[in-house]
Structures are given as C-alpha cells and as structure tokens.
Amino acid sequence: MDIKTMYRLTYGLFVLTSAFEGKESGCIINTAGQVTSEPNQIGITVNKSNFTHELIKQSGIFNISILSEEALFETFRHFGFQSGRDTDKFLGYADCKRSANGLYYITAGTNGYISAAVKQSIDLGSHTMFIASAENMEVLSDVPSATYAYYQSSIKPKPEKTASAGKTAWRCTVCGYLHEGEELPADFICPLCKHPASDFEKVIL
Asked: From its phi and psi, is residue 153 left (phi > 0), alpha (psi between -120 and 50) or beta?
C-alpha cells in the first residue's frame, strides 16, 4: 500500500483559532468544508494533541481563516511549527482582527473567514471532528484558496541539502529537514518543525 496516495486528495489549508478563559491559540489544519446548506454547517477535524483542540472542546466556538495563494511560509511556521501551550501566538502578531464572536481571524494571506459554533463532536481516534453551525463569515479577497499541492510546490521552501550525495537520509515531509543515516530512531523529533519520526520518508541523495 502506497500511503502517498493520500497526498493526491484535494485539501485546502486553514488557520483554526479558538479561545477559552483568556487563553487564545491557533493552528494549521487541512480538513474543513461545508457539510450541509440547510442549516448552514461546516465540519473540521483537529488533532487531539493541538492546544487549539482543547480550547474548542472547552469553548465550543472557533474561527476558520481560509489561506490563499498569497499566504507566506511564515504563517505556516508561526501557527504550525510551535505549540500554543508554550507560546502566545498572538502576542505581537499584527495580521489579525477580532470577529463578532470575540475570536481572532487572520487578515494576511487569507481570502475569507468563517465563525462557527460547535453542535456535535465525533471521536475519530487521533482527531476529533467538530460539526458546527456557521454563525458569521466574510470574503476578504478574490485571491484563489491555497491547496495543499500549491503549498508544497509554491509556498514551502525547498530543503537545503544537509546530507552527502549518495548517502541515505530521512526527509521530513512537513518542513523538508534532512537527517543523514541508514536508520531513523523511532523517537526522533524534527528539530525544525517538531514533527515525529512518522512524518519522515527515506531518500537516497
């Protein structure tokens, strides 16, 4: 079975934000979409390890900022490569505004946002699916939405070669970091984006 077949599916990219009792955070997700039109509902899936997941479980509200083809890699780095448990992602962050529900949405490199209130949640193992009613939304620009494929080809920086030619290395599929060696330890953590060994692929340089 070739797991890379999953990469052929069409994904959008979004900054998911939420807050509870003064704690605010956001993370990158690639699963969000309209599930019904009457009532107008959207569905998102969020990894349980994300701090934003905890905030949604507690508050029952979230915003989805739809990333466009103008999004910079720094947005992905800022919201995707660090944890809200350790870092206040909105401290000093200027490219955001508050919507009517009091949550932040992202204004740079986005073409719209949706504010939603959770109606039900479904435990999917590593992730939770939240079904939510769309409470408010706004188009911010006409720039096309960024797909996962566009992110890989045009936004994510190409990895620098940090391993010798002809050697075996392990490449992080999230940020492109290269770790030289025949084997990758099971507990290896990417030093750049903090993703685990399961997100690495073996390559011959």
From this structure: alpha
Enter the pTM of the model: 0.83
Contact 115, 52 (CB under 8 A): no
Segment 154-180, tens digit of pLDDT: 988 776 555 556 678 888 887 778 888
Asked if 15 and 66 touch (Cβ cutoff 8 Å), the reply is no
CA–CA separation, 36 and 54 (whole Å): 25
Q: Give the tokens for residue 138.
A: 């706004």
E strands, 1-145, are: 14-20, 23-29, 32-37, 40-47, 61-67, 96-98, 104-106, 110-123, 127-139
For residue 36, pLDDT over 60 is answered with: yes
Positive or negative torsion for Cα 50, 51, 56, 61: negative
Q: How far apart are CA 191 and CA 98, in angstroms?
A: 33
Please classify residue 86 by burial: count the beta carbons closer than 10 Å to its beta carbon, then call 0-12 exposed, 13-18 middle and 19+ buried: exposed
Look at residue 156 in the predicted model and tell me its pLDDT.
83
- In terms of Cα–Cα distance, which of 60, 64, 149 is closest to 105? 64
Peptide bond into 159 cis (omega under 30): no
Which tokens in the block code for residue 131? 């079904």
Residues 6+ apart with CB under 8 A from 178: 159, 160, 161, 162, 163, 169, 170, 171, 172, 203, 205
Per-residue confidence (pLDDT) for residue 19, from 0 to 100: 98
